[in-house]
Each structure stands twice: as C-alpha cells, then as structure tokens.
Amino acid sequence: MTDRYGIVPAGAPDGASYPVWVVRDRATGALVKALPTHPEPLRFHSYDNAQAWVRDNGTPAPGTEVER
Fold it and tell me: Are 43 and 34 in contact (CB under 8 A)?
C-alpha cells in the first residue's frame, strides 16, 4: 500500500443511498480529478475498486525521480 493517496467517503450523487468514494492526495489535500480538464473528482462506487486504483497509481513510474 502507498502513503501518497487516501480514500475518503464522498457525498452520494443525487441523494443515492450507496457509498461513493473519492481519492485524496495526502501531500496537497486535493481530490484526484477524473480528467485533468474537468473539476469532478474521480469517484468509485466500490471501496475495493478505489483501493485497486490507489495501489496501481500510488507508486511512481519506474525511472521517475522522487524527492523525499
């Protein structure tokens, strides 16, 4: 697991009764956006799917320098 992102609950759209999860960048506190040109956050209707996204995207690509 990575420490870069955290998964937090979001308000359900249109008053839906199912949980919605968003991903927050812990360094900036900003929600991860669905697309760079749109203001909507990336939303998941399954916590497992959110965890999979964090696992797949939370580590830098090989060859990328990371400052600590």
Answer: yes
